[in-house]
Amino acid sequence: MSDEETVDATPEPASLGSDSDGRQQPKEEEEQLLMRISKQRELIDGLPPGDTRADARGRAPHQRRLGQLEFKYQMMVERKRLASELLKFQEVYGDPYSEPCLICLEDIRVNVSEKLTLLLFCCGGFVCESCARDMRESGVGLVKCPLCRESLDGTEAERAEQLMALAKRGVVWAQSNVGKCMIHGIGGFEKQEMSGLEWINKAAAQNHPTALFQLSHLHTEGLKSLVRKSQEKANELLVKSANLGYSFANSFLARCHYLGRLGFEKDIGEAYFRASVALALDGTDEQAASTLGILHYQQDLPEPSLYLACYYTNMAADEDPSGGAFYILALQNLLGYLHDQPVLPGISDAPAIFFWFGKSRDKGAAQARETLKAWEKVGQGFCANCFKMTET
Question: Gene Ontology terms, cellular component aspect (predicted)?
Answer without folding.
Answer: cytoplasm
